[in-house]
Amino acid sequence: MSNILYIVVPCYNEQEVLPETSKRLREKVQTLRQGGKIDADSRILFVNDGSKDATWEMIQKLHEENSVFSGVNLSRNRGHQNALLAGIAVAAEHADMIVSMDADLQDDVDAMDRMIDAYEAGNDIVYGVRSSRQKDTFFKRNTAQLFYRMLHFLGAEIVYNHADYRLLSRRAAKGLLSFEEVNLFLRGIVPMVGYQSTTVTYERGERFAGESKYPLGKMVAFALEGVTSLSVKPIRMITMGGLFVCLVSLGMLIKAFVDYANGNVEPGWTSVIISIWVLGGLQLFAIGIIGEYIGKTYMETKRRPRYLIESVLLDAVEQEDTPG
Ligand code: UDP
Ligand code: MG
């Protein structure tokens, strides 16, 4: 049985961190190789997600100097999740196990040892889970918490405090690639792949250098993506809300009739104004959520490619066809 490891690292404008990241990952691969845990054909696969800085030039240079470094160059910026998927797709052709991690060294590289141990113990998916969020900003910590809670409430099967630091076996990766949705929210989809899985906890550090590539706007879009791609519960909640409002208005109607019959007709300004505003708000909100899903359906019907690869730098050793 071979043990080829591919470490997939999506990079968007990461020239500040790449020198350090590549150094640490190379050292990690070296020690793992010396320890006999992984094969010599293991690779570090950087995916350049349409960076505007020198990221791709740096990846090319790393590859020239040492063939342990390989690279995938996307035709343009497609976002973290798609870049990750592109890397996994390339890696799944060669690797037995694929570890995905961010470029900024927030994920503890040393946790990889335990991930590989868990893989050897028979797990197809090993989730990296943060032991604490002390290093995150107060805002990020709390919004992230709220987000996970909400996804749970909506019925999505999602691993708490797990980002995209994980190990996938080859068959889990192939399984993941067979999910064809264009709107991709990997941490919600991976649990659907199934197979035996486990978690490995690690301390998440601060970004090594450079700025976060997930500004607030992108984060909100990502969260919305997560909700609407994993659950249709919001639409059901709207239906229930609508039903409730209908029942209440029925009650009001009866009251109005009784009042009319008794001859005490009220001026009624307050109730009219309140109903208009409450119902107006509810309707706008409901239409908005339904619109989200319709938009999503529209995007999915186009069946657009999730990414296009411009070039691949990879000196993979040709694998023999092994039976079984
Ligand atoms: N990233 C990417 N494409 C993008 C945005 C981000 O490939 O459009 C990569 C980025 O280079 C990093 C990872 O996704 O390796 C996570 O981004 P970042 O660390 O900035 O996010 P944060 O940790 O702040 O949530
Ligand atoms: Mg980061």
UniProtKB/TrEMBL annotation:
Pfam families hit by this protein: Glycos_transf_2 (PF00535)
Main subcellular location of this protein, as a coarse class: membrane
Glycosyltransferase 2-like domain mapped to chain residues: 7-174
Topology with respect to the bilayer: Multi-pass membrane protein
Keyword match Transmembrane helix: yes
Transmembrane segments: 238-257, 269-294
Xref: InterPro entries: Glyco_trans_2-like, Glycosyltransferase_2, Nucleotide-diphossugar_trans
Keywords from the named record: Glycosyltransferase, Membrane, Transferase, Transmembrane, Transmembrane helix
Location of this chain's protein in the cell: Membrane
Molecular function per GO: glycosyltransferase activity
GO cellular component terms listed in the entry, alphabetical order: plasma membrane
Recorded superkingdom: Bacteria
PANTHER family (alphabetical): PROPHAGE BACTOPRENOL GLUCOSYL TRANSFERASE HOMOLOG, UNDECAPRENYL-PHOSPHATE 4-DEOXY-4-FORMAMIDO-L-ARABINOSE TRANSFERASE-RELATED
Protein's name according to its UniProt entry: Glycosyl transferase GT2 family protein
Origin organism lineage: Bacteria, Bacillati, Bacillota, Clostridia, Lachnospirales
